[in-house]
UniProtKB/TrEMBL annotation:
Cited Gene3D superfamilies: 2.60.120.970, Cystine-knot cytokines (2.10.90.10)
Cell compartments where the protein resides: Secreted
Name the record gives this protein: TGF-beta family profile domain-containing protein
Keywords noted in UniProt: Cleavage on pair of basic residues, Disulfide bond, Growth factor, Secreted, Signal
UniProt GO MF annotations: cytokine activity; growth factor activity
Pfam families noted in UniProt: TGF_beta (PF00019)
Family indicated by similarity: Belongs to the TGF-beta family.
Presence of the UniProt keyword Secreted in the record: yes
TGF-beta family profile domain: residues covered: 157-269
Keyword Disulfide bond tagged: yes
GO cellular component: extracellular space
């Protein structure tokens, strides 16, 4: 689940434009889902008394593009709302907007960056809210980001050719790859921002003689059976990485690629 990278900014009608940059490798995939996460916080109140315990916050995401005359134009893609408490607004909180259509269109016809503006206000336009911006003076821990779920059909076809895939209801006894979803929140790992869960998969099954012939080295080791050898076992043959967004000890947001997190194929070794 890749997270987009952020670069420079400019302005559109008084609003700062947030520019997202995607790598060529990411752009090769299809977009299944895309969510924009923004951290909003009360900047100041107008000179009126507010007694509400909760506030309805509206936020609109517009894409900045060029019209037929070559001038900048703003195209709305997402209108969302959230009910937040006064404490959440004072301390700051994360909200998200579904921007799947916007990002999918950008992937089909990509440019250098995807530029957006975000308009945020309460339902009665009484509270001045701030959305942190990826500029030099911003707090990196609350920088806006886009979380993507991608679809790679060619990768899936290759994966089926490499090893056997099974389900929990399968009666297959030979070594096979089974689905397994890991939820970080169930472990109490709240320092991981995204993904909250992912498909890790695991290997299980027997390694009979006929199956070992697919792997000559393992087959020979099984026949020789040296001292201390526990025999062949079903284990991952190929692993892949995932991209993660998480907080470090100083509460800075870190984006990194963690290797060996997903079992892509299983075999006997």
């Amino acid at each position: 689940m890749p997270i987009s990278d952020l670069r420079r900014h400019n302005h559109f009608k008084g609003l700062k434009v947030i520019n997202f940059r995607f790598t060529d490798k990411v752009l090769e995939n299809e977009v299944e889902e895309a969510f924009l996460y923004i951290h909003i916080q009360e900047l100041e109140r107008q000179n009126i008394t507010i007694t509400d315990d909760h506030f309805h916050i509206n936020y609109q995401v517009n894409r900045i593009t060029r019209n037929s005359q070559g001038s900048k134009a703003s195209v709305p893609y997402s209108d969302s709302s959230s009910k937040l408490s006064g404490k959440e607004l004072q301390d700051g909180t994360w909200v998200r907007a579904n921007v799947t259509n916007m990002v999918a269109e950008f992937f089909r016809l990509p440019r250098e960056t995807l530029g957006i503006v975000v308009r945020v206000q309460d339902s009665k336009n009484r509270i001045n809210l701030v959305v942190p911006h990826p500029s030099s003076e911003s707090n990196n821990a609350v920088m806006p980001y886009i979380e993507l779920t991608l679809r790679d059909n060619s990768h899936k076809r290759t994966r089926r050719m490499i090893g056997m895939d099974c389900t929990e209801n399968s009666k297959e006894v030979r070594c096979c790859r089974y689905p397994l979803s890991v939820n970080f929140e169930e472990f109490g790992w709240d320092w991981i921002i995204a993904p909250k869960q992912y498909d890790a998969n695991y290997c299980s099954g027997e390694c009979p003689y006929s199956f070992l012939q697919k792997y000559p080295h393992t087959h020979l080791v099984h026949l020789v059976a040296p001292q201390g050898s526990g025999g062949p076992c079903c284990a991952p043959r190929r692993m892949s990485s995932i991209s993660m967004l998480y907080f470090d000890h100083d509460l800075n947001i870190i984006y990194g690629t963690i290797p060996g997190m997903v079992v892509e194929s299983c075999g006997c070794s």
